[in-house]
Amino acid sequence: YKFNSVIxxxxxxxxxxxxxxxxxxxxxxxxxxxxxxxxxxLMLFGTSQFAFVIGVLFLKHEVVSKxxxxxxxxxxKSVLGIAFVLAAxxxxxxxxxxxxxxxxxxxxxxxxxxxxxxxxxxxxxGFFGEHSTNxxxxxxxxxxxxxxxxxxxxxxxxxxxxxxxxxxxxxxYIVKLPYNCIVKRLGK
Length: 188
Hints:
The chain is mostly helical. The protein has helices at residues 5-25, 33-60, 63-68, 74-94, 101-114, 119-145, 157-187.
């Protein structure tokens, strides 16, 4: 809270840009494996911290709350939100580099949080939100670690995604079984 937010964004952005260049454009090979690993981790941190810093500043300045309180018709908020997301998408199409990913993500997520949503969409999002952490933690097992070819048996990208999602949600239910049993016993 003590630091000027503009300076924090600028310093974080410069660190992100430099780390991005060294991580993706000007790869540095370090002979010592320990120093090489430290360098790799520093570059990974540098390319990850910018979005985190922006999130902290959004919380500090209550950006989403302030945008939600704007006096504006719900349909206009939705139209503007969709327009901003489409603009971010088009921008990312012209600048396909990963370097702009935090910017497009921030715009998209902010619009998503601010735009009003209908009840059924809130229920669907609530369902997926309930399983999101478990799905995020296990999804790599289904395509990269344990079951490398399982999800790709669906062949088509949309079907692969749906199959992966179904596997992750099913796994989330299994992971939650012990937790739900404990909560039920504690509730009695």
